[in-house]
Design a protein that fits this description.
Length: 160
């Protein structure tokens, strides 16, 4: 092999190695929100997450991965605990109850109802949706009330 061919092969190998390092060392802010049903456990209660429409997640600054939750109530209680404890929360997502897709927790609409009328895994009776009209319809159907993110955190502070 001549010197030029060797340098080309070495350059390609070096580029591939650097690419792999950059992907592996991706900042936490770019880590995907990816709940594995039946495998991931709720950070607060330890229950295996089996229903996506009730799930949520918190990514703390400097963390290597998301903390996942099986119930929006568990999520809200831990979010409030982190916030009041001075932790920096880098990102927070909840899963839209109707669409079963992750949404920004601060932009979601929350329905809080009697858990006998709106079942959730840990009996908090809280679900999240993105669309305001969907939220109103769910609240009416389940005898619940609508809450903003800030109101949800106040609920979490007061909830035993």
């Amino acid at each position: 092999m001549n010197r030029r061919a060797f340098l080309v092969i070495a350059g390609v190998g070096l580029a591939a190695a650097l690419g792999a390092i950059l992907i592996y060392r991706r900042p936490a802010s770019q880590r995907p929100f990816n709940i594995r049903l039946g495998q991931d456990r709720c950070k607060r209660c330890g229950m295996i997450i089996s229903r996506l429409e009730h799930a949520a997640g918190i990514l703390l600054a400097g963390a290597t991965d998301w903390d996942y939750y099986d119930d929006v109530g568990c999520f809200a209680k831990d979010y409030y605990k982190h916030m009041s404890g001075g932790a920096t929360i880098q990102d927070a997502k909840v899963v839209d109850f109707k669409k079963k897709s992750p949404i920004d927790a601060k932009k979601a609409q929350y329905i809080v109802a009697d858990p006998k009328k709106l079942w959730t895994p840990m009996s908090y009776g809280v679900v999240a949706v993105e669309d305001v009209e969907d939220a109103r319809a769910l609240a009416e159907a389940h005898g619940g009330v609508l809450k903003t993110f800030e109101e949800l955190l106040e609920w979490a502070r007061e909830k035993p």
